[in-house]
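Our preliminary data section would be incomplete without showing what the modeling component actually yields. Below, a chain of 338 amino acids is followed by its predicted structure, encoded as tokens that our downstream tools consume directly.
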Amino acid sequence: MTTGAWRRYLLLVGILAGLLEVAGSLPATAGAAPTEGTVTTAPTEHVILFVLEGFGQESLKGGTMPHLSKLVKDGSVTWSATGVKPALRLPTMASLVTGMPVEKHGITWNNFEFSRGYPRSPSLFDYLDLSGGRDSAIFYMDESLYQLARPEPYTDYQLCGALRSECQPDKIVSYIRQYFKKATSGHGYGHAILSLPHLLVVHLPAAGRAGVAHGWNSKEYREALKSVDAAMQAVLDLFKEYKLSDRTTIVVTSLSGPGTDVGAEAPTTETPVVPWIASGVGIKHGQTIRRPVSIIDTGATVMRILGLETHTEWESRAVEEIFQTAAVSTADASEKKR
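Predicted structure:
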């Protein structure tokens, strides 16, 4: 057995054990896999997932975020995706990566607590590896998210946070650039990754922090939006530099809209409403998403973009209407062949 096969065998044993542990509390009908006869576009090879904070439709006013505005124009968008309760950074990010609501993944606190360990629920990153050997790279910008940085042979994490003044969007871009250079050097990055990841997760909370600290109509908030927009474009330029743009799809969402402090100790009582955007290869242009979308749906949609199946314990659902080729029934497909 090769090293890679042995690694995935051990991982599969671990994931199956985790699934048995949570299966008793999960509904049998959750997260149906794609139906037989589904016709899809050719899957892309790479997904960039940008996770912002303090961002909403009004954040684009005045030309503050021209690059993100172009992604919206060229892609599919809803400005009213639902977040999760409590509306805090760590529980919301946990829901995003596990495809489960807070009451199922169990992370209700908002600071890294070593004694609590890592989430037991299988994550998006686990399923990417098990379904097709897809590697991930995650760049988080908050210390609380160490709680989600479970050591994995197929996932590389790099984190910095608010306690480090130099941890700004441009610093994260420099980390990603270093990552790309090392990952393509032939010697790998860290302990495992020997090529560019299929999923790149980039957390950019600067706007939310500026809004909380200085006000949501402040100059500092607008400047933070500009820095986030510039960082996103720098990552896209990096993909262009490595000739990956024609094989890449971009997903953008936010842990919070303007006015919400996801770093607070006490959450708001309301269920947050956040933007959710997809753009790039295989995505409809200028599409307004009509069906209800939850931030929890991000995981299943990433799987769908990469041509992989979702899994039954998820409450995550792929946002099918964003794709250029819609799903059709087996009967429809047979009729077309006649």
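Confidence is low (pLDDT under 50) at residues 1-42, 327-338. The two ends are 46 Å apart (CA to CA). Preliminary results of this kind motivate Aim 1 of the renewal.
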